[in-house]
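ping. complex inputs:
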Amino acid sequence: MKAHIITIGDEILIGQTLNTNAAYIGERLSNINIDVRTSSVVGDDEGDILKEFDRCWKKNDLLVVTGGLGPTHDDITRKCIIKFFKTELIQNNDVLEDIKFLFEKRKREVTKVNVDQALVPKIAKVIRNSRGTAPGAWIEKDNKIFIVMPGVPSEMEKMMTSYVIPNLKEKLGVPEFTILRKTIYTTGIPESTLFEKLGDIEELLNGAGLAFLPSIFGVKLRITVKEKDEETAKNKLSEVEQKIISKAGRYIYSRDEEALEAVIGKLLKDRNLKLAVAESCTGGYVSNVLTNISGSSEYFERGIISYSNASKVEILRVNEDTLAEYGAVSIEVARQMADGVKSIAGADIGLAITGIMGPGGATAGKPVGLVYISVCDDKVCTAKEFRFGEDRLLNKQRTSQAALEMLRRHILGITQDE
Amino acid sequence: MKAHIITIGDEILIGQTLNTNAAYIGERLSNINIDVRTSSVVGDDEGDILKEFDRCWKKNDLLVVTGGLGPTHDDITRKCIIKFFKTELIQNNDVLEDIKFLFEKRKREVTKVNVDQALVPKIAKVIRNSRGTAPGAWIEKDNKIFIVMPGVPSEMEKMMTSYVIPNLKEKLGVPEFTILRKTIYTTGIPESTLFEKLGDIEELLNGAGLAFLPSIFGVKLRITVKEKDEETAKNKLSEVEQKIISKAGRYIYSRDEEALEAVIGKLLKDRNLKLAVAESCTGGYVSNVLTNISGSSEYFERGIISYSNASKVEILRVNEDTLAEYGAVSIEVARQMADGVKSIAGADIGLAITGIMGPGGATAGKPVGLVYISVCDDKVCTAKEFRFGEDRLLNKQRTSQAALEMLRRHILGITQDE
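pong. complex structure:
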């Protein structure tokens, strides 16, 4: 089944809103082996939308459309669907009930524009919306499927998991090929170095596919195999995976598509260790990432964002003389912060970060991007210097990933890189 | 000038990577009044890429392509350009020097695959890359422009600001129309309620355009006017803006496309106020957002992530009896946290958040999504209850935005909503 995703909205084209919907839909469709070959974005213009419907409907078996179903005047997707399929609008009472129920729950009056949202294309099966007012629609014609959903991510996501994916699976039946994918997450090694470490790529892959996906968090390696039967596919995948591990194992932190913070969470939980974090320059970024993991309260004891020097001294017990002699951005202060936060929290491990994220704050000998990270337990205290770039937000992300990787290695007893 | 953006990469299609590049490019092109009408994503497949080049080149004056220029075997964009424009590769010595310089700086060996990146399409002007190894290219043919850049965001962004935008501006010359846009940021009011508050939309707009952009952070209103001369455009824009302010001013926190944390930063700085933050459930999210603003160390004194009850008592001086009687997720504890963090930091304002982000952690009478937020200064201490949804990460974001909006209103003396 060849699929295309259309996202509707000027706000996507002019970059005011990130197209997270296309990513979400692409991932879910790929997971059930639907071949998402292309996707596109079109503005809130009737002519452009109709042209795009026409072009993509001809070339694909499945068209998934999001956006432009809201209650305001600039939402024109429904009108376009009526024209494209030469159908009409009829009121759907289930949808009307849903809308009334939602407004009752939120203790708000149902407005005229919301009632109008219960009008749906006559030829469509309705996809009900449990999180908002705009219903989705599923249209089948000429042996093809056209799906439209609202652009609000949480509403679309709920429709995908509870209706679209189950119904598509049923349509697909037993697949002709088995396509398996596996993504290996690495960090701390540049793309080209990793590529060379893997040696002769044709030999390593033996017909499988391998994509390099670099980002500031590291390089992901995505292996893809396509075989007639599942057994062969699984063996092939495992073979390539093992070869990659043997060549670059040291840089791999996940083979289960887990973020570094999830990997660390499991390591801490398994070992029954408590973590405390002291952040200066990252301002809460690292703690936030760690606590994005559900259940993190089991191992994340507390975090101190010691932005001011006073807070470093008062809470973390950093020595005032050390601060005066070496400055807040120094390997000495990083060590004392890590040791201090561990002690006051009664935790097993302390992680600390101090640095200059920019654009301001540089001093003689201490440029923007200079960062010190330290990890301490009761026996070992490691600290490292890093030199990142000039962008404040990128620096926060890079620093966080480096700190988490130091933490992972510390827990596993892997030596830190030079 | 009609433009189309093509992003190349399977990782975008299957949702492993968010298409931030298309958003960035779309925004920058729109800012100089280039009409980005459509954009598309195509996978790492030569046939698909060449078809997409052909289709989009015919229909547009400007084509901007990113992705697939890296050093590994799955990067095939350069090969496709050579075929599409029927040209050849030649070595560019400036690029070779750039690559050598970059590797020297990073203290790494130049590898063969990197040297090959100095090969560029003969008919192209090279766009040099100061942040990575893959050069970009600018090709002019048949009175149209084709631009290709690497997919690594920081490299592409640097090329856009230092080369692509200045050169496009020069090409464009004096514009025929003046298109002006203004986006007004609101929060704390649903889209449909806001729509109804604005009344007769045709009358309000009088020919201007207005888009409603809802997200979990609030609803943005984007006004667009297109006029022959700049003076008329400016007046029209200002007229619509004033009408919107008169009808929904209370919910507007920015008319300069500033995030709420940037608005708050200015308010604190102007009034010379120091802020301290105590977070439980948000785990550092709010402090991180506040410290994303450059110069925030002037007003952000410290943050305490009091995840454990022990940390609430030891650092924030929350009363143990209050904790036992009302529980950590209570309006009483929120107030004590806000007051406590303000006192220990010697700050003017304390902001505190406690709640249940889910999916675990719910207890009898305290469901997932329950949040208490408090803002205190030396005279006034406000606290409010919120009930958000079930998704952990969305809850963190919603809670943060609600906390910042309470803080904004507190500073400005605007009464909090019921």
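The mean pLDDT of chain B is 94.
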